[in-house]
User: Fold this.
Amino acid sequence: GSMRQEIKLVIGLLVLAGLGGAIYAVQQDDAEHLEAHAESNEELPTLKLTKDQIGTIDKVVVKNKDKGEVTLEKKDNIWRVTAPVDAKANQENVTRALDTLEKLEVEALIATREDVYEKYELDEVNSVHVQLFAGGTSLMNVHFGKSGSRGNMARMGDAASPAVYAVKGFQSYQFARELKNWRFNEIMAFE
Assistant:
């Protein structure tokens, strides 16, 4: 009877191998589908920050397209605008913007060439450039650009490679505020 058992074993192994192969093929197919948009399969960077990391942020620099740059700093737990003017910040607007960073997901690599920056609004003039610091350490340095069906186009501000990614979860309006909307408005507060 050992011959029959061996045959059963071989068939069992073949079935297993076939299943494994099928699963592998499905996974490969999936990967290829994603890769079709990308030019290389380098690891996608992680952008989202944890609640704890967000809690440590003490400096935010946002360069909003052509509207100029605003610097916000947390001093004694209070957010202040420190450039281009010095004023108390709208605490809620800052907190709300930072809280959205928990939801950032890098979906796909779109391009690896600098010549597409302008098209995707990732050049210095058209991007929303967000830099976040905690105790002098950079937590995030990202240019966010055009938004479309696949999310927002983004590139890393300090990356060695010119990769462009599609990012989901970025709420541009939370960061692309005009100076007056970052500032604490006394008049509003009294109503």
